[in-house]
Design a protein that fits this description.
The protein has 404 residues and is mainly α. The protein contains 16 helices and no strands. The longest helix is centred in the N-terminal third of the chain and has 43 residues.
């Protein structure tokens, strides 16, 4: 009997490299082909991981998606990391993240070097990318608003948050608004009836989970303090991107206003290059958070790109690993669900404010700009064309506007 146990352990150790290699290959394929944003990514994941390979059952996958929506951070990346962890442990989660993220990171770093090497700041296609960003975010607000602010209380909360965000523009205003919205939601929806769901099996001990959560909160608290005591530009960059990655609820588009507050006032990136990079991010597959690689490269070259990418995704990794063992308990709390309802409404408000400033005020400066933005919005919303086709159309439209 003991010999059988030893053989099982040896078989598991031999199969681990095979699992990791398979994870890398499949996640890299997804990283090269997954266009369309977080919701589309979840569909691609389901097709590759669940339907084709049956690495998880349907209910467990649905639970993992729900957890990723509950946590701050990039939902699709957290689902991919979670599947990797369940498949091959912590290293599996890291490998799944690398495969899914690296292709778009490389593409956006190259785009940053292109912008730096050639003076194309006034090129028509760059202006077209800014208009693309307007239509993309407007489309995201409409979809999120229908889902996250379906009643007058949540819609009102979203508009209040948007108004305060525009009128009170400080580094900490958005963080405080998210916390306040969580408290409001916890009070308004304190009697929310929780829904029963099957438990998800997690191969991570609670001790490891607590360690990850401790690291998450420790970095969130001490990085800003350490930044004040150090003159390191890379440490400051790490702090800015780590905080942005820690406070994003509701999907990748919401990182835009957080990063705008971190990058433009510090002078790391000007507003024009910031919006051009955001538009270009829509044209590449993989997670929207790889926008950080572009910004890091613009600010500090290759080292900045690496630091920014690691920093913005690190909270997602720590939170998904830290929360998985406790998820079955947390989701049964009406207070937790109420707080999430309030936070989601605030997210819509913050994104609505970003649609006006910096997007609209920078990109829509003539009637032709508004006309192009409207066309792109219709292409996304009603024709449901892939984002990369909208990006190309926006670039061509920007060039044509330049000849008017």
């Amino acid at each position: 009997m003991e010999s059988n146990h030893i053989e099982e352990v040896l078989d598991e150790s031999r199969s681990k490299p095979k699992k990791l290699l398979e994870l890398l290959l499949v996640s890299t394929k997804l990283g090269l082909t997954s266009f369309g944003g977080p919701i589309a990514h979840l569909g691609y994941f389901h097709n590759e991981y669940i339907r084709k390979r049956q690495w998880m059952d349907e209910r467990s996958y649905a639970d993992l998606v729900a957890l990723s929506q509950f946590l701050p951070g990039p939902a699709s990346s957290q689902v991919g990391i979670g599947i990797g962890v369940i498949r091959a442990g912590l290293l599996g989660g890291f490998v799944a993240w690398v495969g899914f993220t690296l292709p778009s990171v490389i593409a956006l770093i190259l785009f940053a070097f292109l912008l730096q090497g050639i003076d194309i700041s006034n090129a028509g296609w760059i202006h077209g990318l800014k208009i693309v960003a307007v239509s993309i975010v407007a489309h995201a607000i409409m979809g999120m608003g229908q889902k996250l602010t379906p009643d007058k209380k949540r819609a009102t909360l979203a508009v209040i948050v948007a108004s305060i965000t525009l009128l009170w523009q400080t580094m900490f205003s958005q963080v405080l608004l998210i916390v306040a919205a969580a408290l409001v939601g916890m009070w308004m929806y304190r009697r929310t009836v929780t829904t029963e769901a099957p438990n998800i099996t997690v191969p991570i001990s609670r001790n490891v989970a607590v360690l990850c959560l401790s690291v998450f909160f420790g970095l969130l608290i001490f990085l800003p303090l350490t930044r004040q005591l150090s003159n390191s530009g890379l440490l400051s960059l790490f702090d800015s991107f780590y905080r942005s990655g820690s406070l994003v609820f509701g999907g990748g588009h919401v990182v835009l206003p957080l990063l705008e507050k971190e990058m433009i006032p510090t002078g790391w990136v000007n507003k024009e290059d910031f919006l051009a990079g955001y538009g270009a991010t829509q044209a590449v597959p993989g997670p929207l958070f790889t926008f950080a690689a572009y910004l890091g490269a613009m600010a500090k070259g290759i080292s900045g790109a690496v630091v920014a990418t690691v920093a913005i995704f690190l909270p997602a990794f720590l939170l998904i690993v830290g929360a998985l063992p406790f998820w079955n308990t947390l989701r049964k709390s009406s207070r937790i669900q109420g707080a999430l309802i309030g936070v989601n409404a605030a997210v819509v408000g913050i994104l609505l404010a970003a649609l006006y400033n910096p997007l609209w005020t920078t990109a829509i400066i003539a009637p032709a700009d508004f006309a192009l933005a409207s066309i792109l919005f219709v292409m996304l919303t009603f024709w449901k064309l892939p984002p990369w086709t909208v990006v190309i159309s926006g670039m061509v439209g920007g060039i044509l506007i330049g000849f008017m």
